[in-house]
Design brief:
This protein has five helices and no strands. By secondary structure, the protein is mainly α.
């Protein structure tokens, strides 16, 4: 299946869910897509991809295709897009701000969400670390 066609993905996944919910068992969905960006910031994708290949996949951009689909059905307007972009930038700016803020973390919190019920070893490790901090304060 074309994994860049969001309407097709939704249709196939809906059918897969109906199949599974009706007792039909597992359902394998193979969706082909393309990673547009490099693996990491340090990766130079031009070493292993030609510009023409990347450009070809830009024409299959799932967001652009969905936008075209929704515009053709008069479900999406320029005002909607501008509003969504503005909302997304506000959300992203807030997220960046909160992620870049220095957060005073309690090192003992490392143990708090490992398991629903802490194991004896985890309790022991937490106590050892707490004792180490207490000794440093003295």
């Amino acid at each position: 299946m074309d994994g860049n066609d969001l309407v097709a993905v939704l249709s196939v996944l809906t059918a897969a869910l109906e199949h599974a919910h009706s007792g039909g068992g597992p359902f394998l969905v193979e969706a082909h897509t393309y990673r547009m960006d490099a693996h990491t910031n340090a990766d130079d994708a031009t070493r292993y991809r030609e510009a023409a290949e990347v450009e070809q996949w830009h024409t299959a951009d799932p967001l652009a295709r969905l936008e075209t689909y929704l515009r053709a059905r008069a479900v999406l307007t320029d005002d909607d897009i501008e509003g969504d972009r503005s909302d997304a930038e506000t959300l992203a700016a807030d997220l960046r701000s909160r992620m870049n803020a220095d957060h005073e973390a309690d090192p003992l919190e490392l143990f708090d969400h490992v398991f629903a019920e802490p194991t004896p070893q985890l309790r022991e490790q937490r106590a050892l670390l707490a004792a180490e901090f207490a000794a440093q304060e003295d």
